[in-house]
Design goal:
The complex is a heterotrimer. Chain A has helices at residues 10-27, 67-103, 105-120, 123-133, 138-165, 168-175, 180-216, 227-233, 237-242, 245-271. By secondary structure, chain A is an all-alpha fold. Chain A has one domain (10-20, 55-277): MetI-like fold, CATH 1.10.3720. Chain A starts with 9 loop residues before the first helix and ends in an 8-residue tail after the last helix. Chain B is mainly α. Helix content of chain B is 77%, strand content 0%. Chain B has helices at residues 4-29, 33-38, 48-60, 67-79, 95-130, 135-149, 152-166, 180-214, 217-224, 229-267, 272-281, 285-313. Chain B is globular. The model of chain B is unreliable at 87-91 (pLDDT under 50). Chain C is built from 14 helices and twelve strands. Chain C has helices at 3-9, 58-66, 91-94, 109-112, 119-130, 135-148, 154-158, 167-179, 197-214, 225-231, 249-254, 259-266, 307-311, 335-346; strands spanning 16-27, 30-42, 47-51, 73-81, 84-85, 102-105, 185-189, 217-222, 234-239, 242-248, 317-318, 325-326. In chain C, the strands form two sheets. An eight-stranded mixed sheet of chain C has the order 6-7-8-3-9-10-12-11, sandwiched between helices. Chain C has a four-stranded antiparallel sheet with strand order 2-1-4-5. The longest helix of chain C has 18 residues, at 197-214. The chains are: A mainly alpha, B mainly alpha, C alpha/beta. The B-C interface holds B 216-218, 220-229, 235-236, 239-240, 313-316 and C 66, 68, 91, 95-100, 103-104, 106-108, 111-117, 125-126, 129-130, 161, 163, 174, 177.
């Protein structure tokens, strides 16, 4: 047997720990002893940006704002978007997939067509189109990114449901007269949940990265700071030459978080040996 | 019954119709189409010049007719190559011209990126599979994992910093008027930025499939025939392991298209990516619509071609 | 010299002589002793059968002689072929033997052929590697080979893929590939197990025919005594990594000595048995090859075992026929054996006269 069976591993728990830490930091950011993300800590006689020091752990940006504080506050928006997106994707995509896999027939055909059409759009293009037509509020962005996930999630949910719906315990439940709703909720969902958990971690990583991409194009949320926007602010050639920390601070935070999400999702997937997860 | 190829092509056409209908409806139903087309001018009903523009837009876009009729007309125009007039506040050249000028640059970027990704991933996967589970392979696994986790804009920033600024190997920006070869050289770094994570995805998949294939009996049989290790890898193991790779290649093109949007912005290449971004900021919807249609069509076509190619490459698939 | 050595010495100079061959696999749980001290001769033009249950090490043995082992395997002992010592040779130097001097036919033809390569290409490959043939020469030879293994419409088959052929035809192709460079030895590892019964005998006959034509040595590895009965000159019975009995085929069937072999023979259902005769099975399972029991390895499952069997491992000794050796303290026909047999018949465990 492979390593998969020997527990989730140190790396998994390390990743989960990081995610918990960063989430807590994001939630409690206003109350943590951080510098004010909006304030300009100009030192008389020296022009910003200032390099990393004991007062500013990740330095400051061109307007003398503390990079570390802004990165932590940026986590709030980025994580919320990531979480919101994957929640939407799972709720909508998961429902579509489970219903489609359980009832088959026309439900399945229509749902599959919808998913196929959704999948025909290159991801970022669809996101740009929707946000262009609507607005760029936090909810819209989160839901738009969630829509990107509906098809892959739906596909996975459908596949898992198909597999489990054939199994004996479902037939047994039907034989004693359980209603469809009962079967879905009590027999199928618990089994579908595990692959979905792995998928949600991976999906969240993708949503956060996608938001970063949108921010880089100047198309992310109008209000608030996200990691993508922070990275963009420091990505100009001159800034990179003189003050790389402006970008690299948020880049590291983003990278570590996405890495943790990817690793944890991968480990879950390997551990439960689910083969159908492709995003 | 139609042949497999014909089936796939028909599916592609249907998808494109659906996509275009969806996009068109979205643009015309979400909010006032006039605003979508003209932007702030639409509200400006005092200014005679604006009124003239408004009336011209109404005529051009047949806004008095019903939605399905407008769609059909638009589709007709589209097929004939007329992507509409771009009605920005300044009355710029027709959309087609812009597309014609900028699309090739994005095309070059994408082709280069995918080619690089394939060229990097295949030898990488072969090496990793031949040294499976040994140190070299483990390092390779970690590397590809890191590359996949890193967002492409972050990678772009890092590569730009390392290779262009610190080491000076590549130019920092793209100059549209430079000679052809020089422009290709300038496109290399942006293409590499997109190619590396894609290569990591491809090689991870190919490596797994190669390792599985190498357990098969026919590989042992090939060794028993006296075939050398590298010949076994290249001639016997690679071909049957290719299939997931090909499928992912098609699907990943979508991600690459998205990636090229971002990379064009960072490296300031005036291609379709920058076009659509500028168009959105200007609320220039004909352009947005045109770019969305082109990008989606390319994506759908690539996937259809991949499907067809797959059926040719795997002798077990019935055609 | 020992009796084993004497028995091995008899007859013309062997093509391959195996002495004290051990093959060990490094696994997570420990060192698996898949082949644990085997002595064998393979003679030119003659057919040797290696028989045993699943897991006894017979497949590993054939691959060990050929040298086709994974990197986790470690060989000890000696395998001499035409003056060359094969144990210790690197994979690179073994390659010139594989396909050219010795070939192997594998068990499942469904998976022994590359699914995405044309048949013709797969046959031509060893020809081009070892004999340096041109593409067209190789193709012509491939055609001849297909005719030799009696595949109908050979020209069409050359351009086909494995999935377009039936199981029996695929195995013929595999045999054709194995024969292509005219090897001196053909190893056939369960060549018929995956095939229909009707096809099985065709394939075995084909192998026998080719052996005669080419004066090739054949090593037939199988768990099925029925397969070796009609198609071998000599049989070696393996158990838990060791050879426990070896004899010319007729002699083995007529004069079996080791109780294990006898049980194997008895477990073949016979057409002339009464209806509803209970199938004879050997109870228990083969021992763990990481930590084999001391003494005779079959003792835990042997109905005739006595104390000595559990303590001291019996050496290979010969009968009146020097070519027939066996490893047993109380072989069939010995006093102790007969005594125990009476007890077993009396208690109804064994049926008298069933041989």
């Amino acid at each position: 047997m492979t390593a998969a069976r020997r527990g989730l591993g140190f790396g998994f728990w390390l990743s989960i720990s990081w995610l918990i830490v960063i989430s807590l930091a994001a939630i409690f950011a206003p109350w943590l002893p951080l510098k004010d993300p909006g304030e300009n800590y100009i030192v008389a006689g020296a022009r910003p940006p200032y390099g990393p020091s004991s007062t500013h752990w990740l330095g400051t940006d061109q307007d003398a704002r503390d990079v570390f504080a802004r990165t932590i506050f940026g986590a709030r928006t980025s994580l919320v978007i990531g979480f919101g997106a994957i929640s939407f994707g799972i709720i909508l995509g998961g429902t579509l997939g489970v219903l489609s896999g359980y009832f088959r027939g026309w439900t399945d055909r229509i749902a599959s067509i919808v998913m196929l059409i959704l999948l025909s759009f290159p991801g970022l293009i669809l996101a740009i189109l929707i946000t262009a037509l609507l607005d760029r509020g936090l909810a819209t962005i989160a839901i738009t990114l969630g829509i990107l996930g509906v098809a892959p999630v739906g596909r996975l949910a459908r596949a898992s449901t198909l597999v489990f719906a054939e199994r004996d315990f479902v037939t047994a439940a039907r034989a004693i007269g359980s209603s469809n709703r009962r079967i879905i909720v009590r027999e199928l969902l618990p089994n579908v949940v595990i692959p979905m958990a792995a998928l949600s971690l991976l999906g969240m990583a993708i949503a956060i990265v996608a938001e970063g991409g949108l921010a880089f194009l100047g198309l992310s949320v109008d209000e608030g700071v996200t990691w993508g926007k922070l990275i963009l602010l420091g990505a100009g050639t001159r800034d990179l030459e003189r003050a790389p920390w402006i970008s690299f601070g948020p880049i590291s935070m983003l990278f570590l978080t996405v890495l943790a999400l990817n690793y944890a999702g991968d480990r879950l997937r390997d551990y439960f040996d689910v083969k159908d997860i492709t995003l | 019954m139609l042949s497999y190829v014909a089936q796939r092509l028909m599916l592609a056409v249907c998808l494109l119709l659906a996509v275009s209908a969806l996009t068109f409806s979205g643009m015309n139903l979400l909010g006032d189409p006039l605003v979508n087309i003209l932007g702030p001018i639409a509200a400006d009903t005092e200014n005679p010049k604006s009124i003239a523009l408004i009336e011209a837009a109404e005529a051009e876009y047949h806004l008095d007719k019903s939605l399905p009729e407008r769609y059909v007309r638009w589709l007709g125009d589209l097929v004939r190559g007329d992507l509409g007039v771009q009605f920005s506040s300044t009355g710029e050249p027709p959309v087609s011209n812009i597309i014609k000028e900028r699309a090739p640059r994005t095309a070059v970027l994408l082709v280069m990126a995918q080619s690089l990704a394939v060229l990097i991933s295949i030898p990488w996967a072969l090496l990793a599979a031949s040294r499976a589970r040994r140190p070299a392979d483990r390092i390779s696994t970690v590397t590809s994992f890191l590359l996949i986790a890193l967002p492409n804009f972050a990678l772009a920033v890092i590569l730009k910093y390392l290779l262009a600024i610190k080491l000076g190997w590549f130019p920092i920006t793209y100059t549209a008027n430079d000679p052809f070869l020089s422009r290709i050289y300038q496109t290399f770094l942006p293409a590499l930025t997109i190619a590396l994570p894609a290569a990591a995805v491809y090689q991870r998949l190919l490596r797994t499939d190669l390792i599985t294939t190498l357990q098969e009996d026919f590989i042992l049989m090939a060794r028993a025939k006296g075939v050398s290790k590298w010949k076994v890898l290249l001639r016997h193991a690679l071909r049957p392991s290719f299939f997931s790779f090909i499928t992912v290649f098609g699907i990943n093109t979508g991600a690459l298209i998205g990636g090229s949007l971002v990379v064009e912005t960072i490296f300031r290449i005036p291609g379709l990516g920058t076009t659509i971004v500028e168009a959105i900021i200007r609320d220039d919807f004909p352009v947005v619509l045109a770019v969305v249609m082109i990008a989606t069509s390319v994506f759908v076509l690539v996937n259809v071609l991949v499907d067809i190619l797959y059926s040719f490459l795997d002798p077990r698939v019935k055609r | 010299m020992s009796q084993t050595q004497a028995s091995l010495r008899g007859g013309p100079e062997p093509l391959v002589s195996v002495r004290g061959l051990r093959t060990l696999f490094a696994t997570e749980r420990g060192l698996v002793r898949a082949v644990d001290g085997v002595d064998l001769n393979i003679h030119k033009g003659r057919s040797l059968g290696i028989v045993g249950e699943s897991g006894c090490g017979k497949t590993v043995l054939s691959r060990s002689i050929m040298g086709l082992l994974p990197s986790t395997a470690h060989r000890e002992g000696s395998v001499r072929y035409e003056g060359h010592e094969l144990v210790g040779k690197s994979v690179g130097s073994m390659r010139r033997f594989w396909g050219q001097e010795m070939s192997m036919v594998f068990q499942n033809p469904m998976v022994s052929l590359n699914p995405v390569m044309r048949i013709g290409e797969q046959i031509a490959e060893p020809l081009r590697i070892h004999l340096g043939m041109s593409r067209s020469d190789a193709r012509d030879t491939a055609l001849q080979l297909l005719e030799e293994v009696r595949i109908p419409e050979p020209k069409r088959r050359l351009r086909q893929y494995a999935h377009e052929l039936s199981g029996g035809m695929r195995q013929r192709v595999v045999i054709a590939i194995a024969l292509s460079c005219g090897p001196a030895i053909l190893f056939a590892d369960e060549p018929t197990t995956a095939l229909d019964v009707t096809v099985q005998s065709q394939i075995l006959d084909l192998i026998a025919e080719r052996r005669q034509d080419r004066n090739m040595a054949v090593v037939l590895v199988t768990h099925d005594l029925g397969v070796v009965a009609g198609h071998t000159d000599e049989i070696a019975v393996m158990y838990a990594g060791k050879i426990v009995e070896r004899a010319p085929t007729n002699e083995l069937f007529a004069n079996v000595k080791m109780p294990y072999t006898r049980s194997l023979l008895r477990s073949i259902p016979r057409l002339d048995d009464d209806p509803h005769t209970r199938l004879h099975a050997i109870s228990g399972r083969p021992p763990d090859l990481i930590d084999p029991p001391s003494g005779c390895r079959f003792a835990p499952r042997c109905a005739y075992a006595r104390e000595k069997c559990h303590v001291e491992a019996p050496p290979l000794q010969s009968t009146e026929n020097p070519d027939h050796v066996y490893a047993c303290w109380y072989p069939v026909g010995s006093a102790e054996f007969v005594e125990r047999e009476e007890e077993l018949v009396a208690t109804g465990v064994h049926v008298r006269g069933r041989q």
